[in-house]
C-alpha cells in the first residue's frame, strides 16, 4: 500500500445493519486509514448496550475489573440469540451442543463509572474446527473502556451430563461468519 494513502487520525467507525460498507468506503489499520476502490464487504459486528449498575462498581464508583466478564457473557448470549443459535440445547435437539469457555481475558483502557451506558461490540475473532474466539470492545460514547476476548469450545452434551468436543456445524459456522 502506498504511504501517501494513509492519514493520521483516530477512526471511530461502526457497521450498522442499515449500512454495510465495503473496503471502498475505508480500510482501517489501527490509527491509520487508507481509502481504496476495492469492493470487498467488511464484516459486521454485533452491538448491544448495558448501563453500569451499582453492583458493577468498586468503592470509588468505577467499574470493578471482574464486572467485565459477566458483561462479555451477556453480550455473547445476546449475539447467539440474535443469530438463532441455542445457548442451552433442547432435549430433542440432535446433536445437543453447548459452548463451555476455555479462556477469557480483558484489558482495561479507561475508567467507566456507575450509570455510564456502555456500548459492547462483539466480533468473531477466530473460528477453528471446534472452537470460536469472541472479541469484545467496550466503549463509553467514543471512549474505549476495555477490550476482551473469550474462547468457547463446541461440545456435545452426552447422556449423563458429560461433554465431548464436537466440530462446529456448517450452519453455525455460516452464522458466525456474519459477525466475523
Automatic annotation (TrEMBL):
It is an enzyme of class 3 (hydrolase). Belongs to the 4-hydroxybenzoyl-CoA thioesterase family. Its EC number is 3.1.2.28. It comes from the Bacteria. GO terms for molecular function: 1,4-dihydroxy-2-naphthoyl-CoA thioesterase activity; fatty acyl-CoA hydrolase activity. Residues 61-145 form the Thioesterase domain. InterPro entries: 4-hydroxybenzoyl-CoA_TE, HB-CoA_thioesterase_AS, HotDog_dom_sf, Thioestr_dom. This is 1,4-dihydroxy-2-naphthoyl-CoA hydrolase. Keywords: Hydrolase.
Amino acid at each position: 500500500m502506498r504511504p501517501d494513502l494513509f492519514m493520521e487520525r483516530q477512526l471511530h467507525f461502526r457497521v450498522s445493519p442499515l449500512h454495510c460498507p465495503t473496503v471502498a468506503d475505508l480500510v482501517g489499520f489501527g490509527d491509520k486509514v487508507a481509502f481504496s476502490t476495492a469492493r470487498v464487504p467488511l464484516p459486521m459486528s454485533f452491538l448491544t448496550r448495558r448501563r453500569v449498575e451499582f453492583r458493577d462498581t468498586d468503592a470509588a464508583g468505577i467499574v470493578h475489573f471482574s464486572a467485565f466478564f459477566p458483561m462479555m457473557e451477556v453480550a455473547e448470549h445476546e449475539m447467539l440469540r440474535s443469530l438463532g443459535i441455542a445457548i442451552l440445547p433442547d432435549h430433542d435437539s440432535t446433536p445437543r451442543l453447548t459452548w463451555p469457555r476455555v479462556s477469557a481475558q480483558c484489558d482495561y483502557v479507561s475508567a467507566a463509572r456507575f450509570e455510564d451506558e456502555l456500548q459492547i461490540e462483539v466480533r468473531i475473532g477466530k473460528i477453528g474446527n471446534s472452537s470460536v474466539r469472541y472479541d469484545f470492545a467496550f466503549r463509553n460514547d467514543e471512549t474505549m473502556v476495555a477490550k476482551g476476548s473469550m474462547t468457547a469450545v463446541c461440545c456435545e452434551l452426552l447422556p449423563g451430563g458429560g461433554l465431548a468436543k464436537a466440530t462446529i456445524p456448517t450452519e453455525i459456522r455460516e452464522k458466525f461468519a456474519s459477525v466475523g
